[in-house]
């Protein structure tokens, strides 16, 4: 309750990532810096829009050099809405942040629906944007743990937005929280960012 209602980040016993990996000067940022080396958007989808369904998480990830260090900057849009609206939101986020190197989404369990839906909506909107369906084979907790390598070195900063604060709260609750959609999307966004940088 202190965390969800009062906005206070509480260290949960048994949490994967200690609070000091987050609560340091400069962890929060307000505006995206100019000159980011790469920018990616990643969608962790959910089928439903009811209050009992999982969240749908869209995470923006950028690599920037801040104070002489490679730094990953994150922001999140965590919602519950119909699938077509979810896809439209992911496209809007990418368009509002142009140029984006890649837009990716988890394709597990979607029965191949999302790929043609992205194609349809991109065509209808006249958008030319690469998108990448990704099939995750590692357990979710293993994917999320990869974020810890950057968190532990203070190489992750989160944008000071409602979605950013919800992402921070969910990351602080791993693996004990009720929802981990934001952390899973953050892991996917960082993985996509790494792929884009390897291709440069």
Topology:
Layout: E1 28-29, E2 38-44, E3 56-66, E4 69-79, H1 83-96, E5 102-106, H2 114-125, E6 131-134, H3 140-151, E7 156-159, H4 162-173, H5 181-199
Parallel strand pairs: 1-7, 2-5, 4-7, 5-6
Antiparallel strand pairs: 2-3, 3-4
For the record, give the distance between the C-alpha atoms at the N and C termini, rounded to a whole number: 45 Å
Number of helices: 5
Helix content: 25-40%
Q: Could you tell me the mean pLDDT?
A: 89
User: Using only CA atoms, what is the Rg?
Assistant: 16 Å
Q: N-to-C SSE series?
A: EEEEHEHEHEHH
| Spatial order of the strands forming the largest sheet | 1-7-4-3-2-5-6
Largest sheet: 7 strands, mixed
Number of separate strands: 7
Tell me the overall shape: globular
Sheet-strand content, in percent, reads 15-25%
The unreliable regions are none
SS content category: alpha/beta
Structure description:
- The chain has 200 residues and is an alpha/beta fold.
- 34% of the residues lie in helices and 22% in strands.
- It has helices spanning 83-96, 114-125, 140-151, 162-173, 181-199; strands at residues 28-29, 38-44, 56-66, 69-79, 102-106, 131-134, 156-159.
- Strands 1-7-4-3-2-5-6 form a seven-stranded mixed sheet.
- α2 (114-125) links the parallel β5 (102-106) and β6 (131-134).
